[in-house]
Structures are given as C-alpha cells and as structure tokens.
Amino acid sequence: MLPGRGRNGHAARPVRLLGTRTAWTPAGDGEFFCPGCGGDRNFQRLTGRRRFTLLGVPVLPRGETGPVVECAACRRHFGTDVLDHPTTTRFSAMLRDAVHTVALAVLSAGGTCSRTSLETAAATVRAAGYDDCTEEQLNALVEALAADTGRVHGRPCGAGLAIELHEALDPLAPHLAPAGRESILLQGARIALADGPYTPAEREVLATVGAALTICADDVTRLLVSARTPS
Question: What does the radius of gyration of the chain's CA atoms come to, in whole angstroms?
C-alpha cells in the first residue's frame, strides 16, 4: 500500500497497490428460497473471473470462481446448493401432494371405503391445501386406482404402492423437521383408525410411509400406538 496526504496535510487512507477483483457474469436466473431474506426471491446464477489489480486496475487473470447464486433482493451470494431447497410455493405443493398420496394409499389398503374413513381423509386433504376435495372424489380415485392396477381392497398392494409413496415422500422428507414427518404419518394413521382398528394392510402401508419419511421402525410403532389414544 502507498500512503497519501489529504488536502489539509493529514495522512489519507492508504492506496492499495495490489489486490484482486472478481468480474461476475450472469449464467441463469429463477426463483429460490433465500436463506438471508427468509423467503422466496428471484436470483441470478453468476460465474466469475478473478484478476490481479494494480492500483485498482485489473491487469492479470487469476482464474475462475463460482458459480454462486445472488439474491436479487439482499444481493448476498450463496453456494449453488441453496437451490436444492424448495421455494415456499414448491414446498407447499409437495406437502399437499404427499398428504393426498398417503390418504389414497391408506384408503386403498383399508378395504371398502367407509363413510367415516372418507370423511376423515377428505378433511385431512383439505387441511393440506386441496380445498375442494370431497369424499366422493376420493372414493372415485380409490376405485379408479384399483381398476387400473388390479389391486384388491384390504390386501397389501405390493411394490407399486410403495413406489408411489416413495415418489411423493422421498423428496419432501429432507426438508421436514421430525415433528413434520411424524405429523404426516399420524394423519394417515387417523384415517386408518376412523372405521376401526388397523388392518394388516393398513399397517403395512403406514410402515412404508414411515420408512419413506425416514422414521425408524420403533418410532413408527410408537406413533401408531399413540394415534389410537384419544388426546
């Protein structure tokens, strides 16, 4: 650094002789959940080239840096792994679809859909975000699934149902706190219990739900027992 003198003769801020500067280039944009702002924001994906500077003037390339994600609101930079976190809008849709899938799976495993089971399932799905869900719609979907796949009500549905549950729950589980994962399982348990004790097929479905949500087998058992106890 080189010292300088101000107009009044006092020492001025030192001038930086050598340094580095990064020139950023946009490489894409979109919407993401900004950890700095705590909400959904627009972003730019940036790649950078670093250069040595002499008296603030770029002179020699020093290599590439990034890519990074820059929030359009707070202008902070984050690693690209921040894009793995779903936006609030996407997360809500994932949660809604997960609850809907669990409800259909439990109803499919439970045998002939009783009115109480359908009412409990419809209320659960509406609370998750499908505001216009009705008992009739769920019953029609269960019948259509049985006709399309050859499932038999009241019997284990095998690998096909397990795949459907994992497709809906696997992407969601890493973004849920333990209480959130347990809540989804308990919602399915209450649908199963609406018309009586668990059937073996319902227990199998709920065990699959628990596994997809990364809940250990002992905790699944504990939660299924707790769901039978009136609060």
Answer: 28
